[in-house]
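Following up on my earlier thread - several people asked me to post the actual chain instead of describing it. Fair enough. Here it is, all 138 residues.
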Amino acid sequence: MGNFVLDKGCQIPTTYASSDVNGVQAFRFVRITGQGTGAPIVDRCSAITQVPYGVVQENVDQSKVLLGKVVADVRIIGISRVTAGAAVAIAAEVSTDTQGRAITAATTSRVSGIALQAAAAAGDQIDVLLVQAGRIVP
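Reply from S.P.:
Thanks for posting it. Predicted structure:
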């Protein structure tokens, strides 16, 4: 039995993640920042209060990002790998940290998904069931 997912090509701005020297890093939460030509423009989530759109599925070198013509694959529905920003328990509601990584949802954060695996530490990659336009944790 397979996982059912929905991915969308999204435009990456030249200012992605404030021109992060790493470029676009796979498995990070992104948010919509505008409308491009036929596709939304996305940037890495940088605050727990932002509404995540999905999870970018590929790495893109900074030199390509700076050209301003990058379209990256973003998973918006289904199960996605996500890089953890801290330890996360299995079945925990997760939100995004300031680097687009999954952390346990806290007060005022937007729930982005449910952890299907535990993360022992920052940098671990876990499967997350994505939740669209997540609720705000009271």
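The mean pLDDT is 91. That should answer part of your original question.
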